[in-house]
Amino acid sequence: MNNDLLYQIALTLIPGVGSITAKQLIAYCGNAEAVLTSSAQALLRIPDVGPSLSGAIASSKQTALNRAKEELEFMEKNGVQAFSFLDKGYPERLRNCEDSPLVLYAKGATDLNAAKVISIVGTRNATAYGRQQCENLVRDIAGLYAPLVVSGLAFGIDVCAHRAALANGLPTVAVLGHGLDMIYPSQHANVAREMLQQGGALLSDFTSRCQMDPANFVKRNRIVAGMADATIVVESAERGGALITAGMAFDYARDVMAVPGRVGDKTSAGCLKLIKANKAALIESAADVAYNLGWDISKKSPVQQSLFLPELSGDEKQLLAFLSATEAQSIDVICRSTGLAMPKVSSSLLNLEFSGLVKALPGKMFLKA
Questions:
Q1: What totals of helices (H) and strands (E) does the chain contain, helices first?
Q2: What's the whole-number average pLDDT of the chain?
Q3: What is the CA radius of gyration of the chain?
Q4: What is the pTM of this model?
Q5: What mean pLDDT comes out for the span 94-102?
Q6: How far apart are CA 12 and CA 208, in angstroms?
Q7: Domains annotated on the chain, with CATH
Q8: Which end of the chain is more exposed for a tag (fewer CB within 10 A), N or C?
């Protein structure tokens, strides 16, 4: 049993001991074990530790240690890793944030210190426009670089970002607002499974069997913001979790970017608010992301897309073959030339566009990408 990790986990379970306080106690005492084995009187000699905190540590430490032992057993049985804030595998960007978690739990094999990391967040009530912008952005970023894509596995833009990353062969991490003994929402369990299969990871600072609480999802947002070079908001109402994450990223002095929407649309109000307040850069493309982050496009490292080409239907193959042999064509010309019905052409072109094989141009014109 990892004794140091045991005491670190136990320290996070003491009522009243948050991330900042835990790290301050360890810095003063030398390690987590020294904190939990100190008497209440000894703890009172530590600056800013009063009778309430020292009493809580003294009275709760045995219960916390017993629970920490159970957590280590859960981790061993379920292939879960834990990273202390001093471990090499801990996200370096996150470590630099004052309120970063003392311990992070991870399932999966993704490098949390990838050269380039972006977080993509947004409303749970995503519109077709928002989903399209998210998919296009991730697809085009994959064509320039292979960044790690971080989000929260929630409905709407979050899961759209994860799915787009998977479709384009990018590693992706879901930061959860609960322990790794469950997936919430349960409808996204298949996405989580696919993430792990494609080299992604699930990440949390909550132990298993923790109580589900809306505040947990706000707390996890600091990880989404802190472990990335930039936080990108695709769609957001005037208030909501995405704006909280963006605000945290701004406070961490990280880049914040927002995709604009139509004036008056509720789901664009948050993005416009960030842009107006000069808290987010307005972006329309992956090139804008690269420009804001100072990424050198001449030194791009594209994902090998050929490894992840989707399996095409017969109609899609026919349309792609037609567009490969011609210039940009209107949807009416495509229908007449291929003999396919308009509904089939429309749905097939949309799938080809999502796959990055066809590009839609103004005036309902289409061109092989």
A1: 16, 12
A2: 90
A3: 24
A4: 0.78
A5: 95
A6: 13
A7: 3-76 (1.10.150.20), 117-299 (3.40.50.450), 309-368 (1.10.10.10)
A8: N
